[in-house]
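Q: Could you fold this chain for me?
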Amino acid sequence: MSENIIDVLIVGAGPAGLQAAVHAVRKKAGVKVFGRIEASSLYEAHVENYLCVSGVSAGADLLAVAREQARSFGADIINEDILSLEQKDNLFFVRTESDEFLTRSVILATGTSRKKLRVAGEKEFAGRGVSYCVDCDANFFRQARVAVVGNGSAAADGALTLLNYASEVFLLADKLDLAPDLATKLAASAVQVKETTVKEIVGKNAVESLLLTDGSKLELEGVFIELGAKGALELAVNIGVGLDMETMSHIETNKQMETNIQGIYAAGDIVGPPYQMAKAVGDGCVAGWYAANYANKLRRQEEAGS
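A: Sure. Below is the predicted structure, expressed as structure tokens.
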């Protein structure tokens, strides 16, 4: 086990985690960030709605800059995943892929895992016609023919949103499972519902068409995969971190981004929508600030008692 106790250990190297690192380091806390920027949902996205960023920026480029910025302030960023998290008196015991650590505070910024269709062409055209976030990317498909894949409320709501941008919107689902009000709204809209789903995504440099399981072909320029988002909650649940009571899919925090367990904070997509870079950065700022304050106070208490 690494001997030194970490002040703030951050799980996740997306916008929430990296912003938390910047603010925690500036509060004179020792910070380690575990995770890979490639795992962030921002990595394959494009951003045009973030304040002070002009034009369209690649998420991968923004994350690379953020990572180096956090390092320049003094954060230690390690490209490994956290395997387990346990409470040990006033500290937390963390096991990574190659080491073990004790830390005074933890910030969970793992984001959510977007469910994949796992069909041919999906990975190849991610960011080139394949999207996992209507709210993020709808504006890139103005006057385009697009489809949304999914049978739940996220897919139906996404299809309705796309009517404000695209020329034609298709909703592909074997069987819709919607609340009555949403089902009525969808039926009264211009969304074209097809009881089928995707077999293959086809194109050259970008998405051009979908081969469907009913044997038909649908020509379009974009496909939004809205199968729902499952939070990466295993670490949190195993240690007793509380989830929201309504959906049990996100971590509950107070205004300081602290969970029900003292010393554990959460930020970004894992604490709930909207799944936007701006919110993740704001959450990370707050979590980093308060986690560092907590860790610094605990360290001073330890030093006074020794």
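A (continued): The first strand starts at residue 6 and ends at 11.
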